[in-house]
Specification:
Elements (H helix, E strand, L loop, with lengths): L1 E5 L7 E2 L16 E3 L7 E6 L14 E5 L5 E7 L4 E8 L2 E12 L1 H6 L8 E5 H13 L4 E5 L4 E5 L7 H11 L2 E6 L2 E6 L30 E19 L6 E3 L18 E4 L11 E4 L5 E4 L2 E6 L8 E4 L3 E2 L2 E12 L4 E8 L8 E10 L2 E8 L2 E2 L4 E2 L6 E9 L8 E6 L2 E6 L8 E8 L9 E5 H4 L8 E16 L1 E8 L2 E5 L5 E4 L10 E3 L4 E4 L10 E17 L7 H7 L11
Parallel strand pairs: 10-13
Antiparallel strand pairs: 1-2, 1-5, 3-4, 4-8, 5-6, 6-8, 7-8, 9-11, 12-13, 14-39, 15-38, 16-34, 17-20, 18-19, 19-33, 20-33, 21-33, 22-28, 22-33, 22-34, 23-24, 23-33, 24-25, 25-26, 25-27, 28-31, 29-30, 31-32, 35-36, 35-39, 37-38
Helix pairs in contact: 2-3
Length: 575
């Protein structure tokens, strides 16, 4: 074996093979490489530098270990200063050895500032791992060795954990194994390779085997988890023309930041960095028509084809609960054609656009028209040249969690999957537009409302968010964002039977009311429900997730408990 150490002193990688202490596995001096499934590898050993000109290794030094045949066995870094260990006295005086411990290459990724990201929804584990790696340290490692792997239903990176912990969670979820070696991240499905152990060639050390007691059988097990959406609730209030505040009987469910399908419950970009953030966006712009200007994102046309000049968010959007998609400070000039704020189910083509604003020409003017399931709907709005606008799309689904988790396990020597799929659910949509040149208290112009047009009977569980699909767009966009506001949806039925959605938000957005986290609905002046108006708030209750599994008669005695093992069914599905 050969070991080289680069102390980052300008001398490059230096051969320390001759300084390795042979030792034995019993006294702990031998060189060890410890690999743990889906966790950083570690290497430790002792160096005897007496009588040599080799420098003592330093913290953060680069360590590379190869076999005599040239196979790379370990690459990593010294995470701590080597320990100086007294070994005895020689004729020249005291002798010391250096005990070192190195961590594999992902130590570099773990040291990077963690970048929050959205959830992977029904994506392959390989794509989720590649995205995680690029966000942690773009260009630091190659990912060509990452196999596509099995699909992971939902993976949300833990913001309090480092890269290796999150990478291990991805691999575990897909029944796979990841490794970082020699500057490359790789991942392969487990169960495809068999390792033959033999006690005759020295590769198997019986003394290193460990045993542990089997846990006691239990006939009543309860698991608890995070707060989840519970009951489907609809509360109605009668307007009287004076009452502005209505209190719900329960606080509506809102997803936590760690469990929300978007970045910290929000996805936002103000386009003020001068470059497109590669941790947020995928840019397709063969004609260089998308860039930056004083007003933010600058659009200078397109190649005339649908779906070729696009700015797409890396993370998909789960169509669950209540979402607000918004583009602000938008200006669109003459000759514009394309789609802004589009949610696509499938390829980025207008026919696959679940919801978005279609921009086109009509009678020599530029108009925006709501696009629902690839078809124009609602009212077309003519944009005034030089005016800036805020475009919003509100989406509500009674199901807060649409994408189901996937689980894998080995059954009779073969890997089987459980779960996966999506929850079918209808969706309500509202398209609204606000002219920023109008008074701040002027109501937004509603171009489409499912309350009157009818809900979408079957909506996709998740969509790709494409801020711009420029067939030929000219203008600018100051910002765009996607916000998960919870599970509540406010609607009204007037005395004459007319139905409309009440817009919830903050003052100055041209909305009707605000909804607090505690369930208090407050209507703004001029929007207070009139006499005869019925206000209905639809939302989901909240409770802690819990699962209880009971098996009566189990473990009544140790004999009966053992007998039950041969007949009782094994639950493969979480409650």
């Amino acid at each position: 074996m050969k070991i080289t150490i680069d102390n980052l002193d300008g001398r490059g990688a230096v051969d320390y093979s001759g300084a390795l202490c042979a030792g034995t596995s019993l006294n702990g001096d031998s060189l060890k490489i410890e690999r743990v499934l889906n966790a950083p590898s570690r290497s430790s050993g002792m160096l005897d530098l007496s009588g040599s000109t080799l420098a003592a290794p330093v913290r953060r030094a680069r360590v590379v270990m190869t076999s005599d045949g040239g196979t790379v066995l370990f690459t990593g870094y010294l995470a701590t200063e080597p320990e100086r260990v007294y070994a005895g006295v020689a004729s020249t005086g005291p002798v010391y050895r250096y005990a070192f411990s190195a961590v594999s290459d992902e130590w570099l990724l773990d040291k990077q500032a963690f970048v929050t990201g959205g959830s992977s929804l029904a994506q392959g584990a390989g794509l989720a791992l590649t995205t995680l790696t690029e966000r942690a340290g773009s260009g630091l490692f190659t990912t060509t060795g990452v196999a596509e792997g099995r699909a992971v239903g939902v993976f949300a990176p833990m913001q309090t954990e480092n890269w290796s912990t999150n990478a291990g969670r991805i691999a575990d979820a897909a029944y796979a194994a990841y490794r970082v070696l020699d500057g490359a991240v790789s991942m392969q499905s487990t169960g495809a390779v068999t390792h033959v152990l033999s006690d005759g060639d020295g590769t198997l050390q019986i003394a290193a085997l460990k045993t542990a007691a089997v846990r006691e059988l239990a006939n009543d097990v309860t698991l608890s988890g995070e707060i989840e959406p519970a009951a489907y609730i609809a509360e109605s209030f009668a307007g009287d023309g004076a009452t502005a505040v209505f209190q719900l009987s329960e606080a509506p469910f809102r997803p936590k930041g760690s469990a929300a399908p978007l970045i910290d419950d929000n996805f936002a970009d103000s386009f003020d960095g001068g470059v497109f953030n590669p941790r947020l966006w995928q840019l397709s712009d063969p004609g260089s028509h998308l860039g930056f200007g004083a007003a933010g994102l600058a659009m200078t046309g397109g190649n005339g084809f649908d779906g070729q000049t696009t700015l797409t968010a890396i993370d998909p959007v789960e169509i669950g609960g209540t979402l607000v998609i918004e583009a602000g400070s938008v200006q669109l000039g003459a000759g514009s054609a394309g789609i802004v704020c589009g949610l696509y189910h499938g390829a980025t083509e207008s026919a696959n656009c679940f919801a978005g604003y279609n921009v086109r020409q009509a009678g020599g003017a530029t108009v925006v028209v709501p696009l629902v399931e690839g078809v124009e709907a609602g009212t077309a709005f003519t944009l005034v040249n030089g005016h800036t606008y805020t475009l919003r799309i509100r989406i509500h689904s009674v199901e807060s969690q649409r994408v189901l988790q996937a689980f894998y396990t080995m059954v009779d020597g073969a890997i089987q999957s459980f779960g996966e799929g999506a929850v079918e659910a209808p969706a309500s949509l509202v398209f609204e537009l606000q002219d920023l040149g109008a008074a701040s208290n002027a109501p937004a112009t509603v171009l489409y409302d499912s309350a009157s047009a009818g809900v979408v009977a079957s909506s996709p569980a998740s969509c790709a968010f494409v801020a711009v699909n420029s067939v030929q767009l000219f203008g600018s966009m100051g910002y765009c964002r996607v916000t998960q506001t919870g599970s509540a949806w406010v609607a009204s039925t007037l005395a004459d039977g007319t139905k409309l959605t009440r817009l919830a938000g903050i003052a100055g957005e041209g909305v009707d009311c605000t909804l607090s986290a505690t369930g208090k609905v407050t209507f703004f002046n001029g929007r207070i429900p009139v006499a005869g108006e019925i206000v209905t708030v639809t939302y989901r209750g909240r409770r802690r997730a819990a699962c209880r599994e009971r098996r009566s008669g189990w473990a009544a005695s140790s004999r009966r408990g053992r007998e039950a093992l041969s007949t009782a069914k094994t639950r493969r599905w979480p409650c």
